[in-house]
Amino acid sequence: MVKYILAVNAGSSSVKVTFYTYENPPKAIADAQVSGITAPPPALKYQRGDVKIKEKLEEKLDTPQDAFKYILKRCFDDPELSEVASDADLAYICHRVVHGGDYMDSVKITDETLHHLEALEDLAPLHNFSALEIIRLCRKELPSVPSITFFDSAFHQTMPLHVKTYPINQKIAQANGLRKYGFHGISYSFILRSVAQFLGKPAEKTNLIAMHIGSGASICAIKDGKSIDTSMGLTPLAGLPGATRSGSIDPSLVFHYTNEAGKLSPASTTEMHISTAEEILNKQSGWKALTGTTDFAEIAVEHPPTEAHKLAFEILVDRILGYIGSYYVKLNGQVDALVFAGGIGEKSALLRRTLTEKCQSLGVAIDSETNEEGAGDETVKDISQGTGKGPRVVICQTNEQFEMAYHTVCSRG
Ligand SMILES: Nc1ncnc2c1ncn2[C@@H]1O[C@H](COP(=O)(O)OP(=O)(O)O)[C@@H](O)[C@H]1O
Ligand SMILES: CC(=O)OP(=O)(O)O
Ligand SMILES: [Mg+2]
């Protein structure tokens, strides 16, 4: 009997799932996404073959777990998607888990591994909770299907010790797992393979400065196919600002912002504990705090509607530039390509143009027409001007679900 792979990418405000054929490379047969879980009404995007559906949902979906249940039922019940009608049609479920602690690779969920991941939950409650809730749900409702977890942090295990280590008391650091982990690694793994292939180089000889700029944003220096540094840290809060995240700030700031910083946030539940400081910096900051919108498409426009929108854009550009400069030097100027990925990196021609203009001193130049056109249907699109002086500039349409399905097929035959 032919079986399929279900890949799940759960965030705090959206759940994306894709069903794939079990072959190398896997082919997507359906893709569904519920967003707006934290800002109702939730919206569904569903694609099956050439059919694309977009609708606002009347159902009350308060949590990623509710959204996942809804998507699963909708797909299983869809007569046009008869390939997947029940758990009997699934070979594996792949889950994106942001924080994987010291895990170097994906793991199959067993009582023991789930226990271990639950112990990590406190280190990254805002990011791991939804994924773990969905894993627990799958174990309960689809018990015959093995779950495999893929970690955003695993790709960055190769960072040197001096990059991973924070200059704090090392006994305390080790006892509490306080180090730089880095995230978006499933995406960087997809980007590395796809861009190396596009450039016609072996991945292990490829050097990139890769940017995953979405509502969570990060940047990674890849040397000889390995992450040597990245902008996120112990949690995804560090580094670049995001839709609701401050990115790096002076850590003392939060104690001047509120004297409740260390107290539990009202958003905490009996199962999930987060401090007021984490709540403020992760959920009430970023461009939402500056402009009122979490939609960067409203900010990245030629004529920003307010000064605050202009400022939000300039802040993101400034912070990204700082990392590009730093990583260019860390890579000794030997950079094959500057890669734009993530919802914003892939779609905002203005962000790409503004950043590359400011990187002229590195020999970077783009073709403005190709940049405006964007990547279209191509996974990797070269937008360089072709003068051949500096690093190439490419757009890569990253795909975390595909990456998980691909590795499942490759490693499990
Ligand atoms: N044309 C565009 N210009 C700028 N930003 C865009 C555009 N289209 C989408 N975006 C932004 O992409 C972001 C979502 O990116 P994505 O990588 O899907 O995020 P995440 O996976 O973190 O939810 C949103 O902030 C959205 O506004
Ligand atoms: C790690 C992280 O920030 O993920 P996302 O961009 O999906 O929020
Ligand atoms: Mg994302």
Automatic annotation (TrEMBL):
The species this protein was found in: Penicillium malachiteum
Name listed for the protein in its UniProt record: Probable acetate kinase
Family recorded in the similarity comment: Belongs to the acetokinase family.
Residues the record marks as site: Transition state stabilizer: H184, R245
Residues forming the catalytic site: D152 (proton donor/acceptor)
Pfam families linked: Acetate_kinase
UniProt EC number: 2.7.2.1
Binding site for ATP: K16, H212, I213, G214, S215, G216
PROSITE patterns noted in UniProt: ACETATE_KINASE_1 (PS01075), ACETATE_KINASE_2 (PS01076)
Biological processes, Gene Ontology terms: acetate metabolic process; acetyl-CoA biosynthetic process
Keywords, in A-Z order: ATP-binding, Kinase, Magnesium, Metal-binding, Nucleotide-binding, Transferase
UniProt-listed InterPro entries: Ac/propionate_kinase, Aliphatic_acid_kin_short-chain, Aliphatic_acid_kinase_CS, ATPase_NBD
Metabolic or biological pathway, per its Swiss-Prot or TrEMBL entry: Metabolic intermediate biosynthesis; acetyl-CoA biosynthesis; acetyl-CoA from acetate: step 1/2
Protein residues bound to substrate: R96
Cofactor dependence: Mg(2+)
